[in-house]
Amino acid sequence: MTNVEVDLDCATPSPDGPDDPCDLKCPRAVARERLHRLRELGFDDVVLVPRRHDAEHLQELRALVD
């Protein structure tokens, strides 16, 4: 899965229906659930498109799958 946009500062999750784009524009807990669901569907790799690239944010993204 590629080009998954990330915005963990959203207070309200983006739509997540079968016809909606796959993204992580949602609170951290919801992002963790969405990544878990992708893993259950058989996706081994997810390429994220974060807005921030500072070390703290990248560590936060990594923590979503730990």
Description:
The protein has 66 residues and is α/β, with parallel strands linked by helices. The protein has one domain. The chain is 33% helix and 14% strand. The protein has a three-stranded parallel sheet with strand order 2-1-3. The model has no long low-confidence stretch (mean pLDDT 95).
Give the helix/strand class.
alpha/beta
Q: For the terminal residues, how far apart are their CA atoms?
A: 19 Å
| Mean pLDDT metric | 95
Low-pLDDT stretches are none
Helix fraction bin: 25-40%
Gross morphology is globular
Instruction: Summarize the biggest pleated sheet.
Output: 3 strands, parallel
Order of helices and strands: EEHEH
Strand numbers in spatial order across the main sheet: 2-1-3
- Number of DSSP E strands: 3
Total tally of structural domains = 1
- Provide the gyration radius in Å: 11 Å
- Assess the beta-strand content as a share of residues: 5-15%
Number of helices: 2
Key words describing this protein structure:
alpha/beta; globular; three-stranded parallel sheet; 33% helix; 14% strand; 66 residues; single chain
